[in-house]
């Protein structure tokens, strides 16, 4: 029998699996996901079994040495790993690390005695093999012994036979465990679960009709072990409440749950609500956890000690052996796309994992991605709708403010007269204000008034942003430059144009000196703890104005807020991206949902220079469906997803000329190979130079993934990437590059 194994060589997993022979003694023990010791060169190293090929192309196949853990990864998870590698065009060895804890710790193998107590009940005549009797006697006295100590007592192959005999006849049982303690699976969880489930039922929230209906569908799906859903509900419509009940239903069936949120900052909220209901069964997993902690969490999930994991997209790879439910909250968020190899999309991978493990997948959003809503319109996702706000909350009144008017009236500030008025009355009433602007720093554009000079980053092809601490910074690579106020080229004076969050903060402090202001952007939030602080301060009403970037402040629930201001709705509208309008619509709708979440009526003011733009007008009306119809029609006409499958090939290198010529020759080859493939470009990337590297790209369109993959394989097979050029292959790109 042969096995293909991803092996580790000098702390790196080798991309392509290698083929080994499984020795007869290990045939019963080796499965998909088994952790083994294997020879490589004249050394030994670790490997993970990912397949059982019929034959090998190499001569002299080496033999697997030892089993370190028969089930490091559950086998459906290994299938998922292989699927991802194929789907996203990367190597299994690149995908494997996503599924592993930072530190691979060996589980100990224990043998526990199940037969009668003491030596007396044992008759040597019961056993075929004399050693079996001795081992049985020893185990009956000790109760539970590690395999290692048995081996040191009885070295040699006979021990294995003796243990096999005892196991087959039900005298002993083998367990794998990370600690020396008995496995906690049986010990702690069932009682705890019951207690918690009781708790949640005692809470006095009566679900609305819509919530009950949604839950009913999810419960049916959970029982059947299949079903993909899109839960479309405006903010505050009680989606999270539905998730919680579905989690309880999954636990009741003995299944585990993965809950994904789009941003790190949203983990605590979700985790708190889950912990309230399910206590110790809930764990948190994300990339910034310290190594040891991440390993511990991984082990708890693997062993079944914890059953619910909350985290950002990487938590999707948690090693739950019995999975019942995957929830992806704020499904439309671009952060679900991974920006390094393997360039996966958590939504696609979740649907695949659900299928492989018999789990229900719920995508939830107030503003579903056009792709997801399209799938729902085709019946590939079952659409569940929550139309009403729960707890009596009403939709806020939204006003669009035409900033061209302000300009014509000769005002130069970033806060319109209307917005200032509303801020004043809101603060007077003792209520809170949220202001959004998707730009950090003080002034995003710096220009010389005399010669037009713009300070740019020396590593990246972008202008530098002025910050209040008197530094110019690159927002791509972090480069810092001092500020002199005069132009280095002509000595003229430099103008600070446009507004970032710092400038809005300064303006608020000038106009409303009595306001207590907080700012939440990645400059003010160097750590998740700082974010918690700001969040708690604002929640406790220690401040009454919070200025933030949309990405950070999304999903926040502040009952005291009755006014939301969008400083500049146009920031995301004109990005060179076919999703720019959709993004703008989503941001504005989400932001508007922050106002008046409780009984108080909320107000939202949107400042824009494009007051007729549909993405803005429809967001103001909270009219998702009309926006979707507009958007899907334009995607159909312009041939964009979901009507085609996209891929992006990115080329990077230190010398611009080399990058360009590589891009052109790749484009030529691709244009030759496929008739169903449409090749756009080559063109410079959206940010044409980052950290000293020039970037060009090709965009490919094909009717579906299969055609795309075939054309890419044919094209890339004939293409020889020149030295010094990096080629990035991305299936289904989501973000600008
Ligand atoms: P969403 O996730 O859609 O934004 P949540 O589930 O967080 O909405 O619900 C918003 C608030 O309303 C929460 O405080 C929640 O406890 C409460 N809530 C949810 N469902 C109900 C209900 N049926 N009746 C009363 N309150 C509810
Ligand atoms: Zn830079």
UniProtKB/TrEMBL annotation:
The keyword rRNA-binding does not apply. The keyword Metal-binding applies. Zn(2+) 1 binds at residues 448, 451, 487, 490. Gene3D superfamilies: P-loop containing nucleotide triphosphate hydrolases, PriA, 3(prime) DNA-binding domain. Keywords: ATP-binding, DNA replication, DNA-binding, Helicase, Hydrolase, Isomerase, Metal-binding, Nucleotide-binding, Primosome, Zinc. Residues 220-386 form the Helicase ATP-binding domain. Its EC number is 5.6.2.4. It holds the Pfam family DEAD. SUPFAM superfamilies: P-loop containing nucleoside triphosphate hydrolases. Zn(2+) 2 binds at residues 457, 460, 474, 477. It catalyses: ATP + H2O = ADP + phosphate + H(+); Couples ATP hydrolysis with the unwinding of duplex DNA by translocating in the 3'-5' direction. One of its GO terms (molecular function) is DNA binding. Binds 2 zinc ions per subunit. GO terms for biological process: DNA recombination; DNA replication initiation; DNA replication, synthesis of primer; double-strand break repair. SMART domains: DEXDc, HELICc. Its cofactor is Zn(2+). GO terms for cellular component: primosome complex. InterPro entries: DEAD/DEAH_box_helicase_dom, Helicase_ATP-bd, Helicase_C-like, P-loop_NTPase, PriA, PriA_3primeBD, PriA_3primeBD_sf, PriA_C. Belongs to the helicase family. PriA subfamily. HAMAP family: PriA. Component of the replication restart primosome. This is Replication restart protein PriA. The lineage of its organism: Bacteria, Bacillati, Bacillota, Clostridia, Neomoorellales.
């Amino acid at each position: 029998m042969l096995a293909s194994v991803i092996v580790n060589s000098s702390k790196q997993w080798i991309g392509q699996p290698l083929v080994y022979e499984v020795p007869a003694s290990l045939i019963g023990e080796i499965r998909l996901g088994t952790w083994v010791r294997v020879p490589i060169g004249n050394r030994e190293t670790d490997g993970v079994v990912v397949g059982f090929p019929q034959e090998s192309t190499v001569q002299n196949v080496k033999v697997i040495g030892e089993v370190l853990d028969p089930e490091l990864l559950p086998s459906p998870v290994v299938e998922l790993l292989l699927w991802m590698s194929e789907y996203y065009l990367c190597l299994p060895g690149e995908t494997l690390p996503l599924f592993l804890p930072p530190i691979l710790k060996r589980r100990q193998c224990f043998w526990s005695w199940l037969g009668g107590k003491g030596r007396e009940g044992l008759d040597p005549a019961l056993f075929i093999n004399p050693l079996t009797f001795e081992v049985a006697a020893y185990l009956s006295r000790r109760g539970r012994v590690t395999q290692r100590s048995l081996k040191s007592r009885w070295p040699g192959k006979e021990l294995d036979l003796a243990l096999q005999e005892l196991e087959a006849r039900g005298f002993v049982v083998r367990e794998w465990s990370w600690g020396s303690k008995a496995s906690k699976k049986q010990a702690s969880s069932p009682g705890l679960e019951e207690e918690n489930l009781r708790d949640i039922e005692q809470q006095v929230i009566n679900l609305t009709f819509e919530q009950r209906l949604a839950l009913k569908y999810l419960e049916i799906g959970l029982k059947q072990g299949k079903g993909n859903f899109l839960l479309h509900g405006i903010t505050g419509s009680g989606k999270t409440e539905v998730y919680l009940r579905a989690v309880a239903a999954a636990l009741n069936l003995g299944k585990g749950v993965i809950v994904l949120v789009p941003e790190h900052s949203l983990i605590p909220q979700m985790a708190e609500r889950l912990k309230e209901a399910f206590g110790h069964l809930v764990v948190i997993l994300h990339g910034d956890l310290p190594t040891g902690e991440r390993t511990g969490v991984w082990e708890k999930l693997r062993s079944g000690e914890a059953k619910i994991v909350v985290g950002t997209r990487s938590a999707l790879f948690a090693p739950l052996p019995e999975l019942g439910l995957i929830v992806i909250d704020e499904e439309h968020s671009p952060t679900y796309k991974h920006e390094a190899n393997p360039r996966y999309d958590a939504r696609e991978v979740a649907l695949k994992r659900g299928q492989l493990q018999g789990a229900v997948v719920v995508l939830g959003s107030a503003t579903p991605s056009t792709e997801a809503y399209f799938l729902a319109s085709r019946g590939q996702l079952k659409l569940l709708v929550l139309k009403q706000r729960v707890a009596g909350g009403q939709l806020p009144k939204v006003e669009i403010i035409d900033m061209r008017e302000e300009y014509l009236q000769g005002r130069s500030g970033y806060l319109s007269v209307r917005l200032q008025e509303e801020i004043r009355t809101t603060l007077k009433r003792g209520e809170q204000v949220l202001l959004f602007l998707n730009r950090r720093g003080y002034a995003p554009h710096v220009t010389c008034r005399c010669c037009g000079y713009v300070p740019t980053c020396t590593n990246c092809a972008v202008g530098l942003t002025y910050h209040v601490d008197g530094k110019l910074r690159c927002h791509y690579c972090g480069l810092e430059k001092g500020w002199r106020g005069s132009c280095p080229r002509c000595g003229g004076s430099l103008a600070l144009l446009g507004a970032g969050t710092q400038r809005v903060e300064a303006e608020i402090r000038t106009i409303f000196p009595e306001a207590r202001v907080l700012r939440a952007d990645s400059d003010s939030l160097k750590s998740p703890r700082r974010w918690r602080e700001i969040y708690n301060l604002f929640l406790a009403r220690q401040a009454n104005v919070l200025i933030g970037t949309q990405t950070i402040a999304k999903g926040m629930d502040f009952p005291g807020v009755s006014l939301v201001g969008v400083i500049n709705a146009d920031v995301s509208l004109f990005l060179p991206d076919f999703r720019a309008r959709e993004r703008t619509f989503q941001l504005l709708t989400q932001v508007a949902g922050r106002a008046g979440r409780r009984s108080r009526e909320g107000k939202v003011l949107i400042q824009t220079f494009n007051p007729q733009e549909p993405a803005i007008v429809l967001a103001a009306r909270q009219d998702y469906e009309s926006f979707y119809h507009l958007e899907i029609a334009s995607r159909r006409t312009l041939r964009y997803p979901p009507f085609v499958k996209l891929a992006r090939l990115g080329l990077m290198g230190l010398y611009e000329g080399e990058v360009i010529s590589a891009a052109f020759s790749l484009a030529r080859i691709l244009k030759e190979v496929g008739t169903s493939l449409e090749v756009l470009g080559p063109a410079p990337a959206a940010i044409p130079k980052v950290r000293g590297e020039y970037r060009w790209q090709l965009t490919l369109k094909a009717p579906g993934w299969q055609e795309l993959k075939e054309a890419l394989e044919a094209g890339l097979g004939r293409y020889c990437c020149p030295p010094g050029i990096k080629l990035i292959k991305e299936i289904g790109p989501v973000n600008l590059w």
